[in-house]
Amino acid sequence: MDNAQKKSLLFRIGLGRKSGKLICGTDAVCDGIRDGNVIVAICAADASDNSKKRINNCAAYYNKELILLDGITTDELGTAIGKGSVACVGVTDENIVKLIKGYKK
Question: What are the tens digits of pLDDT across the range 33-50?
């Protein structure tokens, strides 16, 4: 992923947060997946192995998509949504999912 794609993706994730359609943090995302609110979980590349495992297991069990962001750190993900270091976020709106998935276009 080049720098322009990275910026575009982080901007789109930030828009999701500003619209209120994003859940932040491993515990909150797992709870959102269990409740059926999260459509897609997004995890930073340098998230801890435990966080990745928890999100992966939860997403797999409830048949939700998990996107692992290669090249994006927890600090970059946190900065994009106006917080500190964030390992993962969950998207709760289908339109925001389409916007985020369209970053490669």
Answer: 999 999 999 999 999 999
Within the chain, strands assigned E span: 22-24, 40-44, 65-69, 88-91
In 10 A of CB 58, how many CB atoms? 21
CA distances from 30 to 3, 42, 57, 83 (A): 30, 11, 9, 19
Q: Which CATH superfamily is domain 3-104 in?
A: Ribosomal protein L30/S12 (3.30.1330.30)
Which tokens in the block code for residue 44? Answer: 């930073």
CA distances from 62 to 6, 67, 69, 84 (A): 28, 15, 20, 28
Q: Which amino acid is at 60?
A: A
Query: What is the pLDDT confidence band of residue 103, given thresholds at 50, 70 and 90?
Result: low
- Per-domain residue ranges of the chain: 3-104
